[in-house]
Amino acid sequence: MSELKGTRLFLPIFAIAAMVLRMSTMNISLPDQLKSFVDEQVAGRGYGTSSEYIRELIRRDQDRLVLRRLLLDGASSAQTEPVDEHYFNSLRDRARGRHSK
């Protein structure tokens, strides 16, 4: 195991280096009030840098847009069966069946 000692860190460091090489830089201007807010979020929520915080916000916005698109697609699709009490009871039964296995 001693010969693998330095190898354990190689892959994570390599992966981080590869990720950093693929990133682009973007500079943004913020009013002092927003900059202070970002700094507070970074310090209070465990982010290492303001870039990490902003990346997380962008990822969440991307997820929100995907969910919105899926909801709109579902709302505009043809209804296959009545959505009534029987439908929801059946849905609950199926959900309980999956969780109880």
From TrEMBL:
InterPro entries: Arc_rbn_hlx_hlx, ParD, Ribbon_hlx_hlx. Signal peptide: none annotated. GO terms for biological process: regulation of DNA-templated transcription. It comes from the Bacteria. Belongs to the ParD antitoxin family. NCBIfam families: antidote_CC2985. This is Antitoxin ParD1/3/4. It comes from Rhizobium sullae.
